């Protein structure tokens, strides 16, 4: 398929073709279809989860998540770049660790940002002030052992209900998380997790990371078939068509070795980058660029031409 | 968990906001809505190849 | 007459793309298939996407959550995007099976492919700025992919302001420029002749 063998298009006989008329008709068709489908089906709009709605609908999940933030065991606390420094964290493409190379550029300290600072900034109750003082005076090991013990106790309690947790040495942790729950249910935590000290806000990094650490958000997503294991990337809430064009990206997450790889994101998006480049470079890829000749779909497209040529 | 409904004059006659229908086929899991879109695309593609295109007047013969 | 840069640009443009090539009233006889209309359908769907998006921009990102008219315009935007993606992909299938990159048309294919990829990014950022559960969940999932490749350190899907800028300014601008470039290339080179075609009177 060398270009030298392809004749110039203006060497061929022509016939009348009204491009402007074609465009006008096409525009009318797309306008009518879009307006009609919009009128018939509207659009999906499932309301967002707020920290208030989460802590109200699933208070025990909220408390367990807050304890995990203090214990440093939550997803955010273990995340690594670009949010925090965690030894060994960060996905790799083979030996290539781009996540670590990018560094910590959006710093998030989950225990401090999601739990301790909001408590300090809220109107302080004496017992919360005392609990914060006790927490701050303790060693990191002590903090860790209190919060881990409380996390275990909540895990064993019926429904994870703090009221039913077995007594134990949890230090100030139960007071801190109970107060945080009160703040969250009142709606004040939603505002406090945005960048402190600024009036105008556009970054929802902290409240979103905190929300995503709990189970409530992913439970809602599972209901709507949106999780990664459900081909969720191409799905939409309700019965609406979603981003069907992402079928290939979401497909890789369903199969081994990616399904069970801790570097799945990095590996899959490296593959997608290569495939995207391949799409752009199709005309240069031997084999692929010859598929059109072999498949003979073109015989249908140009059947008039091939018939009259004979 | 429900979607905010459209109300008044702009209420949609067909409400697609109730729980989605999904098909499972081995590892494949697909929403009926996406499947309908994909089938329509393939149908359009095949129809475009097969249906006769109106012939315009030959210009220079 | 002294030569000016302006004159040089005009002469170059007119030589590459004389008006009868830019908006011709005829097409080669071999252009006789419904598959050809999916290119112009893609352009017209893009126009509906841009206009409905423009109306949403007029009233701001929160409008469609509180207004029936806003909700309807948002719906037009959604469905025109679904149409745009569908007809663009059919156009892509068609051009692939026609090997439409032949005859010095490689750049036409490449600008089209890049426009397709940029459209995916635009749709993605659109889902992020809906301000609903979709946006929350999609950003929560997408951050892992973007962070894993290092991009997330600069492209923060949780930053509504940043995503809105990408969605309503940078990416549409890119799609617009790529589309214009793509269409001009089609007009400069003309419609690709059938596979195996020889020019009439060129010794069959």
From TrEMBL, chain A:
The chain crosses the membrane at residues 23-41, 268-288. The keyword Membrane applies. It comes from the Bacteria. The keyword Transmembrane helix applies. Keywords: Membrane, Transmembrane, Transmembrane helix. This is Cytochrome B6.
UniProtKB/TrEMBL annotation, chain B:
The keyword Transmembrane helix applies. Keywords: Membrane, Transmembrane, Transmembrane helix. The chain crosses the membrane at residues 22-51. The keyword Transmembrane helix applies. This is Uncharacterized protein. It comes from Kitasatospora aureofaciens (Streptomyces aureofaciens).
From TrEMBL, chain C:
The keyword Protein biosynthesis does not apply. Keywords: Membrane, Transmembrane, Transmembrane helix. It catalyses: a quinol + 2 Fe(III)-[cytochrome c](out) = a quinone + 2 Fe(II)-[cytochrome c](out) + 2 H(+)(out). The chain crosses the membrane at residues 34-64, 76-94, 106-129, 164-185. It comes from the Bacteria. InterPro entries: Cyt_b/b6_N, Cytb/b6-like_sf, Di-haem_cyt_TM. One of its GO terms (molecular function) is oxidoreductase activity. Residues 9-195 form the Cytochrome b/b6 N-terminal region profile domain. This is Cytochrome bc1 complex cytochrome b subunit.
